[in-house]
Amino acid sequence: MLADAFARPIEYLRVSVTDKCNLRCIYCMPEHGLEWLSNDDILTYEEIARIVDAAASLGVRTIRLTGGEPLLRPHLELLVAMIARIPGIEDIALSTNGLLLEGHIEALAGAGLRRVNISLDTLRPERFEEIARRPGLDRVLRAINAAISLKLTPVKINCVVMRGRNDDEVEAFAQLSQRLPVAVRFIEAMPVLEYAHAQREEYVSADELFARLKRIGGLRPVEGPSGNGPARYFTFPGAAGTIGVITPLSHEYCSRCNRIRLTADGRLRLCLFGDYHADLRTPLRGGASRARLAEIIERSMLIKPERHHLRLGEPASRMRALSEIGG
Ligand code: SAM
Ligand code: SF4
Fold first, then answer.
1. 165 in any annotated domain
2. Is CB count within 10 Å lower at the N or C end of the chain?
3. Domain-embedded: residue 6
């Protein structure tokens, strides 16, 4: 079993398949995008599968495909199928903004995708356009229904809560969790790039969120849906779904961190923030064997930090965006 220097078992690999995105969420990407990676820089599906194979040989069991927007990569189902065939991999999940999901979901499920997380910060179309800087709410809602119909459950809905932008919809999202079999997860906004400054003013603490949810009445803690998420879950009487809060800024999850990340350009990132990484692309393209890749992954455990060092309103240094690291 792969473990880091703090004896945390590492069994979860998040794979960013692209740095590009068809949205420009204010907390994630600048309006005009980033300096995108070139196609040559980005790992091919075969290269990703070789790294997953090496990681699986060390005990990694769960893979989550993310980005940027992973569905911008053509035929993502081919990658899902390749990963599904790797011995040891038990679970393949996808994080998506949902815009392109409806048209691809059957092929993805057929290839072995088991679960989806869909980002959704608002239920109001005009507000969606303000936050994501592109339209598309109707497509996201259709994607959520398609995921429920195909039983890619638990369908998790990730909602970044920001004061003055969408915090007045906490109750509407609570109602969504009553109506649909989904796990709504409120996420603390992290101070990334241009958003770092606004984050200080727009921060809504988990305590405040819980207080507001409790006011709706009947909220009780439940065992969360499976799937390696660092959230605490609750439900309302008779509700079809659950509701949870993820607080990445507090450190309570660092001690239970079981994950590593592969960037679209082949770096293994050991922590969500900070520049702790190991280059896998150079050895991979230099012909490294599975055993050699596994050795590099195993050694990189020594630089996985005990915790991140991010604080409210302080911009994350030396990183471009969550999109690059595959938030
Ligand atoms: N594009 C896909 C999506 O939006 O789900 C996958 C990549 S996105 C970077 C993964 C998750 O990171 C999304 O749920 C998004 O809301 C979250 N995220 C991005 N920037 C964030 C920030 N500054 N604070 C908190 N969560 C953030
Ligand atoms: Fe794109 Fe996801 Fe970032 Fe929004 S959060 S800009 S959808 S990568």
1. yes
2. N
3. no
